[in-house]
Amino acid sequence: MNKIKLEILGLSSSQSQTGSFALVMGEEGRNRRLPIIIGMFEAQAIAIEMEKIVSNRPMTHDLFKSFAESFNFDLHEILISDLKEGVFYAKIVCSSNTTYERFEIDSRPSDAVAIGLRFNVPIYTYESILSEAGIVLNELEESSESSSEQEMEEEQAPKSLKEYESEELELMLEEALNNEDYEKAARIRDELQKR
Fold first, then answer.
1. Which CATH number does 3-156 carry?
2. Residue-wise burial string across 123-138, b where 16 or more C-beta atoms lie within 10 A, e elsewhere
3. With contact defined as beta carbons under 8 Å apart, do 186 and 53 qualify?
4. Parts of the chain belonging to CATH 3.10.690.10
5. For the residues of 77-121, what is the DSSP string, one character each?
6. How far apart are CA 185 and CA 173, in angstroms?
7. How many Å from the N-terminal Cα to the C-terminal Cα in the chain?
8. Cβ distance 5 to 122 under 8 Å?
9. What are phi and psi of 134, to 5 degrees?
10. Which helix (H) or strand (E) covers residue 138, if one does?
11. What are 129-165's pLDDT values in tens digits?
12. φ/ψ bin of 78: left (φ > 0), alpha (ψ from -120 to 50), beta (otherwise)
């Protein structure tokens, strides 16, 4: 079966399930999207890595990476491998540097993507999965989607952050990271980058 490469387009609050997020991936170079509903903690783990926020203590997916590297395992790819009764399945494809044996480890897609981001490996799926669960956007919807994303980004940055001096924001950022409030840290970092 031919694999199709995916890229992460973003995360958004799920309108269908409270407390959940939609991980939106797109077929590389095409207009098909694959939304997968994931939990809040997994969404946070993905967002932290996408935003390159460094926490004071390793999170679970960071621990997995350290563990794999310590025992000489290489990750090769993440594969969204199956869809059964509306539930996605994934595999983490890796190998041992000592035996060169290749393994496929069963995983939830959210964990697989969070780990894959940390190893900077490609994400794939099959045509059958994209055909069944993918969404095709026409050019008008794509243009509307990008303007909606921009509006959401502007709304998410609290106006009160604009009132602080850069030095105050730096202290607030450090405090948010110490408290492991990564969403707040991301908003503060975004405000600092705008300046």
1. 3.10.690.10
2. bbbbeebbeebbeebe
3. yes
4. 3-156
5. EEEEEEEETTEEEEEEEEEETTT--EEEEEE-HHHHHHHHHHHT-
6. 5
7. 48
8. yes
9. -75, 160
10. none
11. 998 888 887 643 544 455 445 554 444 444 477 778 8
12. beta
The model's pLDDT over 53-98, given as tens digits with 9 standing for 90+, comes to 888 888 899 999 999 999 999 999 999 999 998 899 999 999 988 8
Structure tokens at 68: 């794999």
Q: Specify the pLDDT at position 157.
A: 44
Report the distance separating Cα 49 and Cα 177, nearest Å: 14
Q: What is the number of helices (H) and of strands (E) in the chain? A: 7, 8
- Please list the residues that pair with 23 across neighbouring strands: 11, 36
Taking the C-alpha atoms of residue 164 and residue 171, their distance in angstroms, rounded to an integer, is: 11
3-class DSSP state of 172: helix
